[in-house]
Amino acid sequence: MSTVELTKENFDQVVADNEFVLIDFWASWCGPCRQFAPVFEKASERHPDLVFAKVDTEAQQELAAAFEIRSIPTLMIVRDKVAVFAQPGALPEPVLEDVIGQARGLDMDEVRKSITEAQQAQ
Predict the structure, then answer these.
(1) Active-site annotation holder among 23, 33, 53, 64
(2) Between the chain's N and C termini, which has fewer beta carbons within 10 Å?
């Protein structure tokens, strides 16, 4: 599957319509972003069942601000409309594959339960 370009106009729809979305927050002037781009693309080819998306932080400043992106590239994984991973830095291919595997293995019922418990404790 080719990478989807996310904007503030289509973000909610893409996340709502897909169970598992990997999001690369990037900018064209960012050297590490350019280094990570081919790793992200290769992973998208290896995992056609997942949605790989990119947010150009220069063009989509509101979206980057909404997620408090302070450093790029930042990889975020959203499963069932819940952000389960967010980390700045260009991940090497084996690390990206490991992160994808860990995110696939999450029990989302347990994740939602933990979120609910944390909210109730506040």
Answers:
(1) 33
(2) C
